[in-house]
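User: I'm preparing a small set of examples for a lab meeting where we compare how different chains pack in three dimensions. I only have the primary sequence for this one, and I'd like the structure in token form so I can line it up with the others. Please keep the answer compact; I'll paste it straight into my notes.
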Amino acid sequence: VPAAIARGRVTAIDATAALAMPGVLAVLTHENAPRITEPDDPILAVLQNPDVPHRGWFVALVVAESLEAARAGAAAVRVEYAEEPFDVTLTPDHPEAYEPETANGGHPGRREHGHPEKSFGAAEVRLDVAYRVPPLHNHPMEPHTSTAQWAADRLTVYTSSQGGSDVRDALAALFELPAERITVVSEHVGGGFGSKGTARPDVVLAMMAARATGRPVTVALTRRYLPAVVGHRAPTLHRLRLGAGSDGRLTSLTHEVATCTSRIKEFVEQAAVPARVMYAAPNSLTTHRVVRLDVPSPSWMRAPGECPGMYALESAMDELAEALGMDPVELRAVNEPDREPDSGKPFSSRHLVDCLREGARRFDWARRDPRPRARAEGPLLIGTGVAAATYPVLVQPSTAQARALPDGAFEVRVNATDIGTGARTVLAQVAADALGVPLERVRIEVGNSDLPAAS
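Assistant: Understood. Below is the structure token output for the 455-residue chain.
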């Protein structure tokens, strides 16, 4: 049962009608749900108190013999609220915005080199532009679903998650259980787009309900619930100021980002971070400002930070190329750094200019019409553009176990996740190559927290 107000408290819940319905077994609320320890991730603290931090926050869970009975029971639960004033609007000059110490990924909230303001004012060509990226929501083909089942003193959880080991550890901490008594199975995951990397409320609710009823319980979130409870990409407001000489070389780069987070959790989309590594600028400023609003908690979504940050930066580079009367490919090439601009460290490899030039060759870039809005087909504007992008290389330890079988085959076990991208096939190919055997002799087992841990 999701909250129907933007902010406030639950003052009364009447589950009488729901409990009288055929097939309804229990109605869990903050008054009777199993207690859990305070989670590291506040979005998991469901049914623990009457507070409503945002619309869609779960205030009750109906457990029934069938999905239809559960939905009918949920519709029959009556909830009363004490509403409080709310604010859900992100603005560039929000009075409660602050500069966080760090953004997502542990990146510093602010980085400054040289004298960006002074050098921008002295630049031959100046560009001062603003962009807005709206909120974006993770909607995988398979919504979030979890089944919890107790057998003697062991708990088995089947869940749609990329992080089975992390889910196990989170449940162990929340319910104060030894991790070795919990097995999380996630053999098949139907997409996630960032929303299934860690435990979400469905798995906590399933475990609560299984403990309260003594029966296996499945909690399946409907698609309309997802935007409020499994994370999303927060909106970002971007202001970019680029100063350059007549030759196109950047003398100043400023990328200021404003975004929002929820009242219960600080998550700052690191959208200004890409500008720290993309182009050579002796004077630069990259900052984040965030405001707590009465909205669902944002989280990771498909290239967090890089996706909106690169859109804004590359749009500004294109506008600067137009102001200079310069080829956008050449503008990027002349601003190619020989070391990472922010840290000063050398690149292990970087072939961005090579890629741009090869792409230009293949697309016959030199023969395009460079004028903006020059070609239309009916109501559509047709053009040719270029953009670059960056994404960090994230490497974490993984382990696997291989066993030779009597029939000459090999069994390889690793707690990896196949999210629909063919991980089973790729892992089998890697194992076959390492073992020096044909692919058909390798059997892969993945998606179980009892297997050797993998990233």
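A couple of notes for your slides: The CA atoms of residues 352 and 388 lie 8 Å apart. The chain has ten helices and 21 strands.

User: Perfect, thanks.
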